[in-house]
Design a protein that fits this description.
This protein has 91 residues and is mainly α. The chain has three helices and no strands. The protein is globular. InterPro entries: Transgly_assoc (IPR007341).
Protein backbone atom coordinates (compact mmCIF):
# COMPACT_ATOMS: atom_id res chain seq x y z
CA UNK A 1 0.00 0.00 0.00
CA UNK A 2 1.42 3.38 -0.97
CA UNK A 3 1.01 6.73 0.77
CA UNK A 4 -1.94 7.69 -1.43
CA UNK A 5 -3.77 4.53 -0.41
CA UNK A 6 -3.11 5.19 3.26
CA UNK A 7 -4.32 8.79 3.03
CA UNK A 8 -7.39 7.69 1.09
CA UNK A 9 -8.18 5.04 3.73
CA UNK A 10 -7.89 7.66 6.49
CA UNK A 11 -10.14 10.14 4.67
CA UNK A 12 -12.77 7.52 3.79
CA UNK A 13 -12.55 6.13 7.34
CA UNK A 14 -13.08 9.59 8.78
CA UNK A 15 -16.15 10.15 6.60
CA UNK A 16 -17.67 6.72 7.31
CA UNK A 17 -16.91 6.99 11.04
CA UNK A 18 -18.33 10.51 11.24
CA UNK A 19 -21.50 9.46 9.42
CA UNK A 20 -21.91 6.49 11.75
CA UNK A 21 -21.39 8.69 14.79
CA UNK A 22 -23.68 11.42 13.45
CA UNK A 23 -26.57 9.00 12.92
CA UNK A 24 -26.37 7.66 16.49
CA UNK A 25 -28.52 9.46 19.02
CA UNK A 26 -26.88 10.90 22.12
CA UNK A 27 -23.29 11.59 23.01
CA UNK A 28 -20.50 9.09 22.38
CA UNK A 29 -17.49 9.40 24.69
CA UNK A 30 -14.88 8.49 22.08
CA UNK A 31 -12.30 10.63 20.35
CA UNK A 32 -11.77 11.46 16.70
CA UNK A 33 -8.89 9.01 16.26
CA UNK A 34 -11.00 6.11 17.51
CA UNK A 35 -13.89 7.25 15.29
CA UNK A 36 -11.59 7.25 12.24
CA UNK A 37 -10.21 3.79 13.12
CA UNK A 38 -13.75 2.43 13.47
CA UNK A 39 -14.63 4.06 10.14
CA UNK A 40 -11.65 2.47 8.39
CA UNK A 41 -12.53 -0.99 9.71
CA UNK A 42 -16.22 -0.46 8.85
CA UNK A 43 -15.32 0.62 5.31
CA UNK A 44 -13.16 -2.46 4.72
CA UNK A 45 -15.58 -4.94 6.30
CA UNK A 46 -18.62 -3.25 4.71
CA UNK A 47 -17.06 -3.53 1.28
CA UNK A 48 -16.30 -7.21 1.84
CA UNK A 49 -19.85 -7.93 3.03
CA UNK A 50 -21.35 -6.02 0.10
CA UNK A 51 -19.23 -7.99 -2.37
CA UNK A 52 -20.21 -11.30 -0.71
CA UNK A 53 -23.87 -10.22 -0.89
CA UNK A 54 -23.50 -9.72 -4.63
CA UNK A 55 -23.62 -5.92 -4.76
CA UNK A 56 -22.21 -4.87 -8.11
CA UNK A 57 -19.22 -2.53 -8.18
CA UNK A 58 -19.93 0.61 -10.20
CA UNK A 59 -17.84 3.53 -11.35
CA UNK A 60 -19.91 5.96 -9.27
CA UNK A 61 -20.98 5.87 -5.64
CA UNK A 62 -22.06 2.43 -4.50
CA UNK A 63 -24.99 3.42 -2.31
CA UNK A 64 -25.76 -0.08 -1.04
CA UNK A 65 -22.13 -0.59 -0.10
CA UNK A 66 -22.18 2.78 1.68
CA UNK A 67 -25.21 1.66 3.69
CA UNK A 68 -23.30 -1.45 4.81
CA UNK A 69 -20.28 0.65 5.76
CA UNK A 70 -22.17 3.32 7.68
CA UNK A 71 -24.29 0.68 9.43
CA UNK A 72 -21.17 -1.13 10.58
CA UNK A 73 -19.65 2.18 11.70
CA UNK A 74 -22.78 2.88 13.76
CA UNK A 75 -22.52 -0.54 15.39
CA UNK A 76 -18.79 -0.06 16.02
CA UNK A 77 -19.16 3.43 17.50
CA UNK A 78 -22.08 2.30 19.70
CA UNK A 79 -20.15 -0.76 20.93
CA UNK A 80 -16.98 1.19 21.75
CA UNK A 81 -18.96 4.00 23.39
CA UNK A 82 -20.85 1.49 25.57
CA UNK A 83 -17.60 -0.26 26.46
CA UNK A 84 -15.98 3.03 27.45
CA UNK A 85 -19.00 4.08 29.54
CA UNK A 86 -19.00 0.76 31.39
CA UNK A 87 -15.25 0.90 31.92
CA UNK A 88 -15.49 4.36 33.50
CA UNK A 89 -18.35 3.29 35.80
CA UNK A 90 -16.40 0.40 37.27
CA UNK A 91 -13.49 2.59 38.35
Amino acid sequence: MNITGIITAIVIGAIIGALGRLLLPGRQPIGIVLTVLIGIVAAIVGTAIAQKAGVATTSGIDWIELVFQVGLAMIGVAAVAAWRRNRHRTR
